[in-house]
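Human: Here is a favour to ask of a fellow structure person. Comparing notes only helps if you start from a blank page. I am asking you to supply a protein in sequence and C-alpha cell form. Write it directly below this note and I will take it from there.

Assistant:
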Amino acid sequence: MLIIIMTSFYIYFKAFHIIGFVTWFAGLFYLVRMFVYHAEVDQKPEQLRADWRAQFTLMQWRVFKIIATPAMYFTWTFGLLMLFTNPAVLEQTWIKVKLVLLLVLVGYHFFCKKVIVNQEKGISKLNSFQFRLLNELPTLFLVAIVLLAVVRDFISFLYLFGGILAFGFSLYLFAKQYKKKRENS
C-alpha cells in the first residue's frame, strides 16, 4: 500500500528534485563567481581590501550554507525518493553513471567550502583565472547529468559526452581569450 501511495507521488518527487538541482546549481555558479571577485580584491585600492574580503566571505558563507547546501540535500532527498518508488531504474546504466557524477559533484560542493575557508584565511592557492575555469565545471556536470536523465541511452550519451568535452574545451579557450583581452585593456 505504501508503494502505491509513494508511486502516485513520483511526479511530485520529480518536480521537487528538479527544483532542488536548479537551486543547487544556481548556488554553485554564484559561489564560484564570488571566488573570482574575492581573488581580485588585491587589485583594489588598499583601503578597500579588508572590507571587500570580509563582505565576500560573508556572502560566500551565506550562499553555501543557506542556498547551495540545503538545495543539495533537497535534491538528494527527492532523487532518492524517486529511486525508492521506482527501484528498477537502478538496473539501468545511465542512472549508475548519473549517480557517480552526482557524487563527484558533491565532492566539488565540499571543495567549494574548503575554498571559502582558505580565502577567509587569506591562503587561497588559486587565482581569478583559475576560479573562472573552475566556475565552468558545474556547467559540464549540469549538461552531462541532464543529458543522461533525458537520453538514457548510454551509447548516445557517450557521443553526447564527447560533445560536452568539446564544449568544455571551447569554454576553456574562450576563458583564455577573455583573460588575454582583459590583460591588454
Summary: The chain has one domain: 2-184. The chain has six helices and no strands.
